[in-house]
């Protein structure tokens, strides 16, 4: 019997393609894995805590459901962009372990996308709160 080489022992196996209902469950597992990876990031945990608290506060203040829904969608978009930013950082570190200007630009652009959505979430939250004063 032939012994596997060192590279064969450590190389990950590509999972077989699945279709139909099995694909739906596989996609859900991949999404859960992505969420587990995302919450390893301090920024994502902070965004989850602040966004979750903001949604609860809006509910406690009696904000109409449509406004809470709109804010919630914007908040989920922030988390999605944070996930993409994390993916950019992970891949950039993989393909460019040495410092490079292009890698810096990629990471800075991902960070900008997150910052813009934090601004949009903050503005939306403030507008909703101001609407309560009228």
From TrEMBL:
GO terms for molecular function: ATP binding; ATP-dependent diacylglycerol kinase activity; metal ion binding. Its main location: membrane. A divalent metal cation binds at residues 41, 89. Its cofactor is Mg(2+). It is an enzyme of class 2 (transferase). The active site is at residue 82. ATP binds at residues 30, 41, 89, 107-108. InterPro entries: DAGK, DAGK_prok, DAGK_sf. Pfam families: DAGK_prokar (PF01219). It catalyses: a 1,2-diacyl-sn-glycerol + ATP = a 1,2-diacyl-sn-glycero-3-phosphate + ADP + H(+). The keyword Metal-binding applies. It is found in: Cell inner membrane. GO terms for cellular component: plasma membrane. It is a multi-pass membrane protein. Substrate binds at residues 43-47, 82, 111. Gene3D superfamilies: 1.10.287.3610. The chain crosses the membrane at residues 109-133. Belongs to the bacterial diacylglycerol kinase family. Catalyzes the ATP-dependent phosphorylation of sn-l,2-diacylglycerol (DAG) to phosphatidic acid. Involved in the recycling of diacylglycerol produced as a by-product during membrane-derived oligosaccharide (MDO) biosynthesis. This is Diacylglycerol kinase. It comes from Tritonibacter mobilis F1926.
